[in-house]
Structure formats: structure tokens, C-alpha cells
Amino acid sequence: MMFNRELKKGSVEFLVLSLIEARPRHGYEIGKMIEARSKGRIQFRIGSLYPILCRLEDRALISGRWVEKAGQRRRRYYRLTASGRRFLAAQRSAWDEFVLTINHIARTGDA
Amino acid sequence: MPDWSQYVRQNLQLSNLRPERETEIVEDLAGQLDQAYAEALVRGLTSEQAEAVAMQHVADWAGLANELLRSQRGRESAVTILQHQAEDRDAARRGRFSLLTDFRQDVLYALRILAKSPGFTAIAILTLALGIGANTAIFSLIDAVMLRSLPVRDPQQLVIMQWAMHHGPKTHSSSSYGDCLTNFGDGESSGCSLSKPFLEDVRAKTNVFSGLAAFASSGPVNLSGNGPATQAHAQYVSGDYFETLGVRAAAGRVFQPSDDTPSSNAVVVLNYGYWKSEFGADPSAIGKTIHLQNLPFTIVGVAERSFINLTPGNTYDLWIPLAQRPRLRAGWNPRQDDAGSWWMVAVARLRPGMSRTQAQGAVSLLFRNDVLYGEKPLSKAEDDPKITLLPAQTGLSGSRRRLSKPLYVLMLAVGIVLLIACANVAGLMLARAAGRQKEIAVRLAIGASRGRIVRQLLTESLTISFAGGLLGIALAFGSARALLAFLTSTFTRPTGFSAEIDPRVLAFTAGASILTGILFGLAPALRSMRVDLTPALKENARLSGRAGAGRGWFNSGNALVVAQVALTVVVLVGAGLLVHTLENLRKIDPGFDTSNTLNFGVDATLTQYKGEQLGDFFRQLRDRFGEIPGVLSVSYSSSPLLSGSLSTTGFHLHGKSDEKYSDADMLEVGPDFFKTMKMPLLAGRDFLPPEYRAVARAAGSPCSNASKALTPVAAIVNESFVRAYFSAGNPIGQRFGGGEDLEYPDPNHCNDPGWQIVGIVRDAKYNDLRREVHPTFYVPSGEDGTFELRTAGDPRASISAVRDVLQRSGFDLPLVDIITESKQIDDLLFQERMIARLSSFFGLLALLLACIGLYGLLSYEVARRTREIGIRMALGAQSGDVLRSVVAHGIALAATGAAIGTAASFGVTRFLGSMLYDVKPSDPWTLVAVAALLLLVALAACYVPARRATHVDPLVALRYE
After folding, report:
1. CB contact under 8 A, A64 and B76
2. Is A90 on the interface with B (CB under 8 A)?
């Protein structure tokens, strides 16, 4: 099942931030993790995800750093900034609220 | 191994970026593409395949560049748009179109949401159905009466000739049949009846028309040879009438020019509807011989079914060639064919490529020459006689004129009702939107754009309005037909109008539904764009603070109720004025006794009597009718009073041919007319029997100077006539009119003897209740007329006795136009009654909707302010205080709306103008009555919510939410 574009769009920032919360990751890896964890239901191509990373970086929610490893092309890794962590916490709270409310609406049938 | 950096640089066009930043972006993207490529290789794809897989990750390089540049400048929407692009391409590849998908989703979502509130949905749809349905019904009438095309070929190429001049032409006779606007008098005059010589001149001397046809009404003709003798309504037409209009035959053939000569066979063409109803649509009717006025005519054909009539509202049973007119018309005067007799209406088809303006120039010049410099000048240069060629569609107004004002008034009324319905539903939607704030806030939180939310809400409102529109069409369908039947029920002839739900009406309904949906959906949709996320997401956000209608006095909820009340006042004031008009008309004293009087006509054609014989026959019938038990008095007149018919005549007051013309209404009356109608004679005497015979004799025979008795005809005048022309001295015995008519000398060399006043009668209305009493004189009727029978009891009980008398007369004469005088007056006032009733109905409907709107708002306000009310009561406020505050709110809204509505009504009711009688548009009694009604209704609307407020338990209220 492919998710509604609205849901995907609204949640992508939240997803990106949450995936780099534990440790920094590079752009392609973030996209692959989203696809893997959603079992293919949510897919982002490089062309779609990259501008999101740029935007988050411009808002200083994440910061990028070049990492060069032996035998590898250099890659840009992204990690959460302090304001990024605070923003993620707020998004998480809003998301929990959202899930509760949706359940409430959907189960009790009252708009 | 592809060079991904080069690949990215080649495709990604970044400009105005710092070189370091550009390098960073290129390297980052190249790195990710390289990873995608490597991963594809690991999966077992070939190098080319892996390269293709990697390249698919960025399909729109230009879009990506834009987004990166924009994001560098801090724009946030780029991500959304790029994602949409990527996903749209995915969706397109999977064979779906996102926009339609979104729309489908919106509609399905709307249906689910609306189904969850069946009460709200039902009320909203019903409210709108009433408003849209009423508008559709009235529009379909306007479509049928005013807008429908003439049922001919290329109607836009047809024109009629309308003459105009500053003073009426000096014709010696003119006739009009209600085809166009006619105003024949001493001042600005116009009309469309023209003379036969002029139309022949147009045919011969101009080359602007490809066809020119003429027609004139014949009035009722006696038709026999198809069952019992009946009356048919016929129209004389030229031989090229059907050809010019492009009307074909449904059976047989239509006229050709060869049918319209004095030596042609006498033929007729039937109207399709008449053929169906009177001949059973029998094809063997073609070729049958019928008798019109006892003269044989052959039916040669039937006009095509769609050709009901040319002039809207004027239908004819059959058509007769103009050349037959002299044979059929009793009292035919050869002067009818000269330039001073204007009795033919012309319709012409413009030659291809000829503009109306060009044709008008040629025809108008010819007309001017004819009337100014013809054998007998009919006008003066300073009167500027001219002809305008009007499009036949609008120039042939017919019955449209009678119906147009009432229809437009009704359209205004139902338009206002629809606005009120919209305001009502908008109020409901606003209140409902308050309860959906959290849902909207959550959707915004998860990424829905505000535009998307607005689109969703508008989809919901359009869904409601379209459902209302569909139901409205069903309501309109039946009511439009019934309404048209009512509006035209007093027309003496079938109008041919039919109210259908045609594509134009459906388009109107669709447009009204869309406009309605946007109107009432906009307020809540726009409000949703201002929702603050964080407070809205809180648990108790449902009915707090900034919810729904908003805080303070000047919020949309209050504004909507005030608007509804204001609009209601406008409709009610209009309805009130029309009801007042009806009352005033009903109270008019017509000047004679309208009770227990039966009017009827006797068609004496079969007797073949003329002149004195006919006059004697009618006087004998009168005597015999007078012997019927229960009959108090009988008379007859050339037309019954208040039947709509009017005869006027011009005369030189002192018989001097150099005097300017005076004019007066004139009515020919039989013996005992004033006694039967109970019109008191104020001075002088009634007519004597010899005076009737003298008139009959003079009408029937030519005279010469030698044999002419210069005895003036006896006349009885009314008070207005005396005031106008004989205010000094005693009018009895005075003479008026007469003298030689130098302008149109009678070929028989008769000098008109004029009239001599023998009596004065009280003023009485003549043809219409509204028309002021004009100077009128009554003369003895020499021949026939319509009978007036005054009875002791119900006059209808005498009808069979009247028929017996006719049978015993030796001729099987048909009785026609049987009607009581009071029904005649009822019919005269029918349209006023109809309009007053309908506008009152719509006014009350508007009031009901406004009342519901006010009730709804107050109920919502009480629910919204439950906590506040609870706190106030806990702090010591009494029930009475709470009740007063709610009622005060409601009354304040009603009063504001009433004030605005009253001011607005001054402008709108001016539009009613000529429809009103003896009542000003700013009539204070009407305004007071409407204000009082509104106050009562507003109090009723406030009552339940106010009571509910007083029952708020402070403890429960404080625990609320």
C-alpha cells in the first residue's frame, strides 16, 4: 500500500531527523533505511530526499560533514544539532497526539 | 565506471551560488548516485543497467536545481513541489492522474464526513434545495416567456418594423393586436401596424429583404362544418408568410404567394395544436371544406408542430390569406387599403450580408417620404417620423409585457431567498467547523497545506450544494408548470408558453449550485486557514476561545444572521407593499354594481342579419331575456365593463375642423344599460327607442348631402367629460364633435352630425380598475353587443334559461364568453393576487430561514459559552439575567438586521414602481407591520436557547471539557 502523498510529505522531516538521532548518516543511507523499515511502502529517491536534507541543514536542524574513508568516495554525513533535537522532540509529541486523535476520531465515528 | 561528478555538473544548472557550495552539492549528489550504482551492481545488474537505475534517482534536474536555489534563499515550498513532481511522475507511470485522484479522494472524504452528520447534511441540503429550486422554477418561467427563441428558421435574421413620431399620425383608422409596444396618442407615439400601400412600396422600392410578410388578427370567426359551430381565432397572413419565416407543413402544404390574390381559391392552414384537438390530427382533414362566417374555405395544410405562434403568447387556430379579408369582414370598408389605414404588421427577413442598420436606413427614408410627401400627408416634418427595424425576437413582445415585470419581481424575491439560504448554511458550516478545528489542526501538523484544507472544505460545500441543486430541480420541475398555468390562467387564449427544464435552465441551476457552494463554503474554508496549530491541538480546544464564529460582536456568525434578517426585511416589505396594493385595488369603487351580473356574447352570424334588422333582433332578445324568472334587468354594450376592451374616439369639440382633436372613451350601449349596471343618471334622461333605430339606420345606409339628416346622435356623458369640456353652464342639450372631416373626407360625402348631450351619468371605470376614469360618452348601440344580465340571486343559475331563449329564437346561436362580472374583476386582479401571494410565500420562507439562522446561532453561542454561563451563575447571576442576556443578543441582531434591511428596501421597492397602486414604496404602515412581525419571530427564535442557558448547571459547566 502506498501512503497518501500528504502523509509522506508531512512526515519526511520527522523521519529524517529520527533516523539520524542515534548516529550520523549519509543521504543515500537515510533513503535506504526509510525504504527498508517501511518494507518498501515509503520510498524516496535521491532527487526527492536531497533537497529536504539541504533545507534541514539551512534551518540548522542538522549539520553535514564530509567523511573520507579509505577505498571509498567521500560522503557527506548528517547529524542532529541541538535545535534539531528539540525540534524532533516536539514533532514526536505532536505525532503521538496525532495518532491518539486519529484513533479517537476513527473509532468513535464523530467528526 | 561512470563519472558521476561530471554527470551531475552537466545536468544540474546552478547559478548565483558560491562555488564552494556548488561543489559541495555536486559532490554530495555524485556520491549518492555512485552508491546507488554500486548497490545495483551488487544486486547483479550489468553496468549499463546499474547506471540506468542510478540515473532514475534524479529525473527532473531543472526542478531540482530550482529547489536547491530556492532553498538557498530560504523558500520552503520547494520540497513539497519537487516531491509532488516526483510522485506525480510515479503516479503517471503507474497510470494514475494525481489531480483526479485527489479530487476523487476529496469527494469520497466529503461524503464520509457528511454521512457522519446526517442531521446537519439533511438540513443543509433541504435549505439549499428550497432556495435553488425556487430560483430554477422562476428562471424556467423567464426562459419560457422571455428568452425562448422564436420557433422559426434563423430567428436572428428576422426583423419587425416599428414606427415612431412625436405626435400620432393622422390616420383615419388603425388597429393593433398586441404584437408589439403600441402607443397611439397625442404625444410620443409608436407602433408596428402599417398600411398596405407602404408595405407594397417597401417590397417594390427597397432591396434589403429576402422576404417580407404581413399579418393581422381577424378576431373570432364562426367556424362550422366540423361538428357543432364554434368560434375559432384566425390570423390573416400574406402568401409568403410561412416562406419568410421558414415554417414548413406538418401535413399538406402551407400558403404560397399564389394563394393570396383576390381571385385565388379560399384556403386555410391549421395550427398543429388546433388540428390535433379539433380534427383529431386526422390526415383526411386536408382538403376538407369548412365554413368561416358561412363562407366555404378549403383546408390545404397544417403548420409544423413547433410553430405554435410567432408573437409570444398570441396563438391562432388557423391562418387565412390576407386577400380573403374583405369577404370575411363584416362592414368592410374599401378605405382599409389606402395609406391612412394602418392595420398590417410586417415581419421581414434580412437579405444575407445586409445589416439591420443598413436596411433600417432604407426603410425609414421610404417611410418618411410616404408619410410626409405622399398623396395624403399623415405627419409633419417636425414630428420626425421614422422606422426602426427591431429584432423580431425582442420587438414582438406580445404577452411578454404582461408577464415580464411580475416574473422579474419574483426572480428578485427568490434570489434573495437563496442568499438567505446560503447565509443560513454558512452559519451551520461555521459552527460545524468549530468542532472540526482539531481535525484540521492535526492535518496541518502532518503536512497538509492550507490550500489543500481549503480545497477539501470547498469540496464538501460543493457536494452539499450540488445535492441541493439536484433536489431543487426535482422541486422546480413540477412547480414551474403549475406556476405558469396559474400566471396565464386568465389569458383568454392559450399562450403557447411551456416551462421546460431545458439545457439553459440546467446550466442556470448548475451555476447557481456552484455559486451557492462557494458562497457558503468560503467563510468556514477561509477561517480554517487561520487555525493556530498548538492551541487547536490541545485537548479542550473544541469549544474554547477562538473556535467557530469567533469572539466579539463583529464576527462572521453575527454578521450572517444580521445579513439574513436584513434580506428578509427586504422581501417582506416588498410582499407587504404588493399585498397592500391588492387590498387597494379590491377596494376600488368601479362606479357600478358588480354583484349578481352575468355577461355573455351571442354570435348572431348565422342569422345573417345586418344593420336595423340586427339591432331589432338584439332588442327582441333583450326583451325575452328580461322575462326569465329571477332576472331583474338586461342590457348589452359593445364591450362589457372591466373586460379590458377599450374604444376611444377623437373629435373636434365644437365641430370646427381647424380645432385640435379632443378625445374621449366611447361605449355603445343598449336599452336600460345604466339601470342594469346601476350607474345613476345625475341629470337629463336615458336613451329613447327611436334613438336606437336612428343609429342603426344611419350606420347601415350611405348618405348624400341631400338625404343627410343633420340630427346629432344622442349621447350620455360622464362627470369627467363634463368637467373636461363643459364645466361652464348646463351641458344638457350641448353638442360636440361633428363637422366635415377635411383631413379624410368621407367618399360618400357624409357630414358627421356629431353628438348631443341628453344626460349625465356618474363616473365609472371602463376597461381596467387601475386606469383613471377618462371623459367618457355613451351612445345608443345600433346593432349587437355583449349582454349584461342582472339577477336577484346567483346569475349562473340563469344560463340554461338563456340558452332556451336562444333556441326559441329560431337560430341555434352559440353563447360565448360567459362570465359573471365579479369573476371578470377577479380575473382582472388575478396577476396582482398571484404576485402578492407568491411574494408573501417567499417572504415567509425567508422569515423562517432567518428565524432558523438566528435560533442556530444563539444555540451555538449558548453551547460555546456554557462554561462562562456556569461561572456567572456560580458567582450569583440569576436565571433572569442569563435569559435577558441571550434574548438581548438575539434582539440586537434582529434589530440591526431590520434597520439595514429597511434602508435597503427603500432602494429595492422602487423597482416595484408601476406594480403598486395607491401605496408609496416607503409606506410606513408596511414597514411597521414587517418590523413587528420580525420582532415576534426573533423573540420566538431566542426563546429556546435562552431557556436552555438558564438551565445550565454551574457544577456541570465548570467540569465541562
Report:
1. no
2. no
